[in-house]
Design brief:
With 189 residues, this protein is an all-alpha fold. The chain has two domains: 39 residues; 138 residues, Orthogonal Bundle (Cytochrome Bc1 Complex, Chain D, domain 2), CATH 1.10.760. Helices cover 46% and strands 0% of the residues. The chain contains five helices and no strands. Helix 2 crosses helix 3 and helix 4 packs across helix 5.
Length: 189
C-alpha cells in the first residue's frame, strides 16, 4: 500500500467520523432545543386562573391584599424572604407553625407533615388552619406587620382579604363570600 492511498483512506475515515460527530451533535442540539421550547416554568403561589377567579369574586380583597399583604407575601401569595406562602402549593398548612419563623414554608420539606413534628425545633406555635375562621382569626389579630399595625384594618377588610386568598387557593367559598356567619363551615382545601 502506498503512502498516498494510506493517507487517502485515513483522511476519508477521519472525514466520515467528523460527519457522524457533526450529525450526532446536530441531533442532540435539535432535541435540546425542542425540550427547552416546550418546557414551561410553574410560578410559585396561586395560579393565574386562581388569581383571576379571586379578583372577580373579591375585588376589594384583591385591592386590600395588593396594598397590605403583597409586599411581604408576594403578588401571587408565594411568600417572599421571611414571609410564608399564603396562596398556592403548601400555603396555609393545617399543621401548627411558629409565627416568629424567619423561613418561608414554601421552601421547607415539612409541609406534608402534621402536628408538632412539622415545626422547626425551638419554634413557638400558631393555631392550625382548618377553616376560614382560623385564617381570619390569625390575620385579623397579627397582620399586617409590623406588630404595631396588627389588627388595624376593619373586619370587612380582613374578610375581603381572606375571601381573596381562599378563592385564589381554590377553596370552595359560599355564594356571597365568607363572613363571620359561615367562616367556621368553610374547610380549607
Amino acid at each position: 500500500m502506498s503512502l498516498r492511498s494510506s493517507l487517502s483512506r485515513s483522511s476519508s475515515a477521519s472525514s466520515s467520523r467528523a460527519s457522524w460527530h457533526f450529525l450526532g451533535a446536530l441531533l442532540v442540539g435539535s432535541a435540546l432545543s425542542v425540550a427547552l421550547l416546550s418546557c414551561t416554568v410553574t410560578p410559585l403561589g396561586a395560579t393565574d386562573d386562581g388569581i383571576s377567579k379571586a379578583r372577580a369574586a373579591s375585588a376589594p380583597g384583591a385591592e386590600e391584599y395588593d396594598h397590605e399583604c403583597a409586599s411581604c407575601h408576594g403578588k401571587r401569595g408565594e411568600g417572599l424572604t421571611t414571609a410564608p406562602a399564603v396562596m398556592g402549593v403548601g400555603a396555609l398548612p393545617t399543621y401548627t407553625r411558629d409565627d416568629s419563623s424567619s423561613s418561608s414554608t414554601t421552601f421547607t420539606s415539612g409541609q406534608t407533615q402534621t402536628g408538632d413534628n412539622a415545626r422547626v425545633p425551638g419554634q413557638s406555635k400558631r393555631g392550625a388552619f382548618h377553616t376560614a375562621q382560623d385564617v381570619y382569626d390569625y390575620v385579623s389579630s397579627r397582620m399586617p406587620l409590623p406588630k404595631s399595625r396588627a389588627g388595624t384594618l376593619t373586619p370587612e377588610e380582613y374578610w375581603a382579604i381572606v375571601n381573596y386568598m381562599l378563592v385564589a387557593n381554590g377553596t370552595a367559598v359560599p355564594a356571597g363570600g365568607i363572613s363571620e356567619a359561615n367562616a367556621k363551615t368553610v374547610q380549607l382545601r
